[in-house]
Amino acid sequence: MGFVDLHLHLLPNVDDGARTMEDAIAMAKVLTSLGYTDAAPSPHNRPEYAPREICVQRLGEVQAALDAAKVALKLHVNSENQFVDERLFEGGRPLAGGPYMLIEAPYTTPLPVLPDVIFRLQLKGVTPVIAHPERCMEFDRKGRAADAVRAGALLQLDIAALVGRYGPNAKKLARAFLDEDLYAIAASDMHSPVGADKWLSESIAALDKAVGRKRLERLLAETPASLLRGAA
Questions:
Q1: Does residue 1 surpass a pLDDT of 80?
Q2: What's the pLDDT tens digit per position in 171-186?
Q3: Does residue 224 contact residue 39 with C-beta atoms inside 8 Å?
Q4: Helix extents (H) in 70-113
Q5: H-only helix segments in 5-93
């Protein structure tokens, strides 16, 4: 089973990720060289960035360019949604049209209503996949990541946190959450091809060393593929 990346900014000129089609193709080549077969580019769902229609159009354009270049990466619809409250469901863009939604918690703002929002989203049939909790202030609180999982959320590791790409605190929290087996998936959160072959390969090696091949396959392949299919 190939790896599946459910958080990356591959689509050109729609947000703060890839700037050109050449960037997108280079990023895809990095992924396929490391064993990825599927990716769900996750452009930011914010007013200052491209709307859904443009993102879906760009996804088709990138897929056509990858096919023409014989880059064997299959793309799926996705978005990174801001975590405000349960109303995000109304304008949220779910993963592959299914019940899962990638949600970005704020980096420097607390979320005291987090469990309640998770519960309300679930009542609407949405399971939140919380992006990079190791980088967010709310999850620096002891036990908060476990609280989110108990409330029904899934947690996504930015894999490069394991090699210090986001600083020592994010690295410490990522290791701790791995030790507690709190993550459902790991993703690249790649924004650019520059240096990506090095840091992503090092990050995958760090994950392998930290949890072993069986859990690595679960975090990078099995569970992400299940989420794409809409399964738990």
A1: no
A2: 999 999 999 999 999 9
A3: no
A4: 88-91
A5: 21-33, 52-68, 88-91
- How much is the pLDDT for 113? 82
Alpha carbon distances (Å) from 198 to 72, 129, 163, 221: 20, 27, 11, 20
Task: Determine how β-strand 36-39 pairs with β-strand 74-75.
Answer: parallel
Look at residue 19 and give its three-state secondary structure.
coil
Handedness of CA 31, 127, 106, 160 (dihedral sign): negative
Quote the CA–CA distance of 89 and 118 in Å, as a whole number: 11
Cα R_g (the chain), whole angstroms? 16
132 Cβ contact partners less than 8 Å away, ≥ 6 residues apart = 7, 104, 156, 157, 158, 161, 166, 170, 189
Q: What is the pLDDT of residues 194-205, one digit of tens each?
A: 999 999 999 999
pLDDT at 228: 96
Indicate if the alpha-carbon torsion angle 27, 32, 34, 40 is positive or negative: positive
pLDDT above 90 covers a percentage of the chain that reads 85
Which 3 state secondary structure label does DSSP give 158? strand
pLDDT at 85: 58
Q: Helix, strand or coil for residue 183?
A: strand
Fold of 3-228: TIM Barrel (3.20.20)
Can you tell me the distance from the alpha carbon of 212 to that of 209, in angstroms, rounded to the nearest whole number? 6
